[in-house]
Amino acid sequence: MGKNMHDRLNALLTKIPALRSVKVYIFLLLLAMGILPSFVMRYGILQSYENRAVSLRISDTQAQFTIIANHLLANNYLQDTSNAAINAELEQISTLYDGRVLIINNSFHVVKDTYGISEGKTIISAEVIRCFKGENTTNYERKGGYIEMTIPIMDSVSSANTSTDTAQASPAAVQGVLLASVSTESIRTTIEIMKRSALIIEIVMIICIFGISVGLSSILIRPFNRVTQAINEVKDGFTDEPISVKDYRETEQIVDAFNQLLNQMKVIDDSRQEFVANVSHELKTPLTSMKVLADSLMQMGNAPIELYQEFMQDIAAEIERENKIINDLLSLVKMDKTAAQLSIETVDINELIELVLKRLRPIARTRDVEVVFESIRPVTAEVDEVKITQAFTNLVENAIKYNKEHGWVKVLLDADHQFFTVEISDSGIGIPEADYDHIFERFYRVDKSHSREIGGTGLGLAITRNAILLHRGSIKVNSVEGEGTCFTVKIPLTYVKQ
């Protein structure tokens, strides 16, 4: 049932977009806060007046009927109802209160009815019986518009006793009961007049509150409109400056979040432009070299075969370089995609690193660099074997290529109950501390000339970092320029998909 109501409400909000506006919510809230208290106040005032008026009417009539009851007993009216003075008094008070008075003797017979229709009849009711026991009773009938009450008719001695404690009067002391009904039409008429006056006041209040709510909701929503306008100006390209709307804490938070996003977008845009420029440059350089070599061959009519072979070897090297750049770019693009494309499996990390080092040791031997692997303990982890292999390959290959002659590269593997750690340290040329924050950027090179000599593309560390981040891992670098570098990779043993 609750779900159906929720679905219906969502459907209604979808059909009527205005109902989803904060301005509408503020307007309705202000309207409700203004109107509901007035309704409650009107009901409370009218109810209080009615209760007070009925209470006063009961108090007033009870006092007068008590006096009449004493006169009845003093004039022996229960035995002889021909007393003109008493009859006139009863008629007068009946007319005064637009009511009816019945006198009942101790045999429960009606001896007097101001309406003249129940005389001689027997009346036995709970109120009458309670009254014969000495209890005054009152009953207000709101729908009927009258108050019904009973007053015991007692002798003077009993009356004196009941003045201190009516409930304790002796049952034999009650000689009869005065049963009266008093109209409350005048009270109801006054209440109706008050209701009409209150309705007029409420209508005026609702009109005023409606206008105030419309105005306040428009004023309160203005800062959010300014936020929207400022964001649209940035979107349309009219400005690229940070926006500022500090009217409310909420607008300030929204603006701060947008400015942070804007700064990130600027950084991403600058990075994209720089990336495009670097890609263009990197791809253009080998093509330019090949064109120069080809043009040179074409200008030589009778060049010896040895020169042709040399030039073709150079062209082949440039093609290989171009191919490596393209492959690295494709790898980077794949790394940029979501982690859902990871092929996670349980892998023996010791064997994986051994395989990486086996492939790279021939390169290390050409530079007389010693590669050492040290494992503290066997490690098995849930990783994408291809991507992790590529990451470790890049790190070890860089450690070999940017090393000194007769240097060394050490790979240390360790693990705890949550992560495995791989440290790749070398005795190479090192990295200046100022470059720590940039070495993982695409196409960034610490030593551009040396990188060109060894054929680096500037994408290896960017690929490595992305592969590690996809595994919810981390990579840190520590280096001393001229002494060596140490990369520390930390990856969870169990892959947790987000």
Structure in words:
- The chain is built from twelve helices and twelve strands.
- The chain has 498 residues and is α+β, with helices and mostly antiparallel strands.
- The strands form three sheets. Strands 2-1-5-4-3 form a five-stranded antiparallel sheet, with helices on both faces.
- β9 and β10 (419-426) form a beta hairpin.
- α10 packs antiparallel against α12 (460-470).
- The relative contact order is 0.06.
What's the helix-strand series?
HHHEEHEEHEHHHEHEEHEEHHEE
In terms of DSSP E residues, the strand content is 15-25%
Q: Mean of the pLDDT scores?
A: 79
Distance between the termini: 33 Å
Task: Outline the secondary-structure elements.
Elements: H1 2-15, H2 22-74, H3 84-96, E1 100-105, E2 110-113, H4 126-132, E3 137-141, E4 146-154, H5 156-164, E5 174-183, H6 185-235, H7 249-299, H8 305-336, E6 344-348, H9 349-366, E7 370-375, E8 380-384, H10 385-401, E9 408-415, E10 419-426, H11 448-454, H12 460-470, E11 474-480, E12 484-492
Parallel strand pairs: 7-9
Antiparallel strand pairs: 1-2, 1-5, 3-4, 4-5, 6-8, 9-10, 10-12, 11-12
Helix pairs in contact: 2-6, 6-7, 7-8, 8-12, 9-10, 10-12
